[in-house]
């Protein structure tokens, strides 16, 4: 009897081992345990066009709404998988903004562009490229055309008497890998903008009052702009004088990124541009204010267009 009981226990143990092994093999290999990248779902929609009803289009509608290209205004189609006229128009707007072939369908190039991790600040307000109505692109006789943009409506800027900005760190997520040097990295990022403006920046203790609050957060974190996880919206920041600057703690951050890491300083320099009043530059991929950030890429230095934009915004030219 004891032998039979032992045999049953061994068989049961082996069964549990096999089941656990299968679960372990089924787990994703990315460092955060996610099943896939946040924007990976878009890959499965390649080839979709108007008139179709395809599972996953509802999520694409949320993506395009989040980044400012789509506004259903409570239409019945906002939460379904129908590829309707409004979705086609939104995709055309996205394609035009990123200088892609304007097809209105999810062709290979469009899908590839949509899947790139990016800043969480929207590119468009109410269907209009920010800055278009404010004529922020200025023709210069020596330098040619500048493509920087200011926030619309606006431009939004810190008041003339506010040139010394105090910042503090306050996160709801703790022990985020790759961010051990975040204080010195952000100090370097602030210095990039200080060198071309009249601003000075000072870190103050977390308990002190500050103009800017920097932190790492996951998912919904109280600002109506929830993060979406690994390889999605990397960070976001308010224009003046909001002062909130948030990193997504679910990203794989690094001070010296490998191919599967995102550069902390590159993103910090970009978000500080938003804090000071610059919007996205969708025309120059090399500009700091371009909204897309590929993993493994280091882009920490302001371009001439970034400098022209911030100096024009504050009348320093």
UniProtKB/TrEMBL annotation:
Zn(2+) 1 binds at residues 221, 223, 236, 246. GO terms for biological process: collagen catabolic process; extracellular matrix organization; proteolysis. This is Metalloendoproteinase 1-like. Binds 2 Zn(2+) ions per subunit. Can bind about 5 Ca(2+) ions per subunit. Residues 154-316 form the Peptidase metallopeptidase domain. Keywords: Calcium, Glycoprotein, Hydrolase, Metal-binding, Metalloprotease, Protease, Signal, Zinc, Zymogen. Pfam families: Peptidase_M10, PG_binding_1. Residues 1-26 form the signal peptide. Ca(2+) 1 binds at residue 251. It comes from the Eukaryota. The active site is at 271. Ca(2+) 3 binds at residues 228-229, 248, 251. Belongs to the peptidase M10A family. Matrix metalloproteinases (MMPs) subfamily. Its cofactor is Zn(2+); Ca(2+). It comes from Pyrus ussuriensis x Pyrus communis. InterPro entries: M10A_MMP, MetalloPept_cat_dom_sf, Pept_M10_metallopeptidase, Pept_M10A, Pept_M10A_Zn_BS, Peptidase_Metallo, Peptidoglycan-bd-like, PGBD-like_sf. One of its GO terms (cellular component) is extracellular matrix. The keyword Transcription does not apply. Ca(2+) 2 binds at residues 211, 242. A motif (Cysteine switch) lies at residues 117-124.
